[in-house]
Specification:
This protein is an alpha+beta fold. Helix content is about 30%, strand content about 20%. The strands form three sheets. A four-stranded mixed β-sheet has the order 1-9-10-11. A four-stranded mixed β-sheet has the order 4-3-2-8, covered by helices on one side. The longest helix is centred in the N-terminal third of the chain and has 28 residues.
């Protein structure tokens, strides 16, 4: 299957997110985000974004999310939008902190503000061309009359469109209708990946969910309209036993719509996987006269479709 996905839909001004970066009195960094994670790893990603721009150790960064005492506004965590919107808010707030710190560093270095630069590798301010004499963030914090807190609302002007291709190799037992996934390859382009490991985890989970949707998941009702697959005892959940090792590759096409160049990745795996599995199963039985089977592709549905085609004999 080939897909193009819309992420961070809506655009400015409705799609915006708050971020702030604070230099505390002891030279540490506090980053606050309106985007609240529920397993995606935002705390790690926000710390990476801030650390990369300020040149500080991630261990010296405290990330706060979802606290209404600390965060004045927030938007939805959804639509594969968090890194590109909230992450960009953190990036812009970091740059604002650098700009606010430069006059203090200039005073300490007895130089003009326009001559001051921050080395993101060392986290030290120095005069352009003379890095030997430098000022650390802790020294800036000591010189500041109060903690520096810089806030930013980032609004992306348009959605982004990650894309990819997923290929599934499936084997179908024509006597039982059982499906075995032999191989699965996914190539996804989500622009710049801030944390490739977390992005891979998002795609792996999405592929597993996409395969499950194609093969197992179904809302089943009885004759009276009562849902009878309402819990994990009755609703089919996929496990590692039904899944192959995923082969994952990336393409990187940064978007110009945000300073990170990032597009969404949270739903890409499931968007590409489900039709890839569906197409692979149909391809495996097409020579037997079966060209369509409704999802989920349970053994019973596949077996019934094969019997209806008249090309496969049932048990004697």
């Amino acid at each position: 299957s080939c897909y193009v996905e819309i992420t961070a839909p809506g655009g400015a001004p409705s799609i915006k997110e708050f971020g702030s970066v604070e230099l505390t009195a002891d030279g540490k960094i506090v980053a606050r985000s309106g985007s609240t994670p529920f397993g995606q790893g935002h705390h790690t990603t926000w710390a990476m974004i801030v650390a990369d721009r300020l040149g500080v150790d991630m261990a010296d960064i405290t990330v706060i999310t979802g606290d209404t005492d600390a965060v004045p506004s927030s938007n939805t965590t959804g639509g594969s939008r968090s890194v590109q919107i909230a992450g960009s808010a953190m990036a812009d707030a970091s740059q604002k902190l650098i700009d606010a710190a430069k006059p203090l560093a200039a005073d300490l270095l007895e130089a003009a503000v326009d001559d001051i630069t921050l080395d993101p590798e060392t986290g030290h301010f120095h005069v352009v061309g003379t890095p030997a004499r430098a000022i650390a963030w802790a020294q800036v914090a000591e010189a500041a009359p109060q903690p520096l807190v810089l806030e930013n609302d980032f609004a992306q002007t348009a959605p982004t469109f990650p894309f990819g291709t997923h290929i599934c190799v499936a084997e179908v037992d024509t006597e039982t209708g059982a499906v075995r996934i032999e191989r699965f390859v996914g190539v996804d382009d989500a622009g710049t990946l801030i944390n490739p490991l977390l992005a891979a985890g998002q795609v792996h989970g999405g592929i597993a969910a996409g395969i499950a949707q194609a093969l197992l998941e179904d809302g089943t009702f009885d004759a009276d309209g009562n849902l009878i697959s309402s819990n994990f005892a009755d609703y089919a959940i996929i496990s590692a036993a039904e899944l192959p090792m995923f082969e994952r590759h990336v393409s990187v096409t940064p978007t110009p719509l945000n300073p990170l160049g990032a597009k969404g990745i949270g739903e890409s795996g499931s968007i590409g996987a489900t039709p890839a599995v569906q197409n692979a199963v149909i391809d495996a039985v097409a020579h037997l006269g079966v060209t369509h089977i409704d999802m989920p592709l349970t053994p019973q549905r596949i077996w019934s479709a094969l019997q209806s085609s008249g090309t496969v004999r049932g048990p004697d």
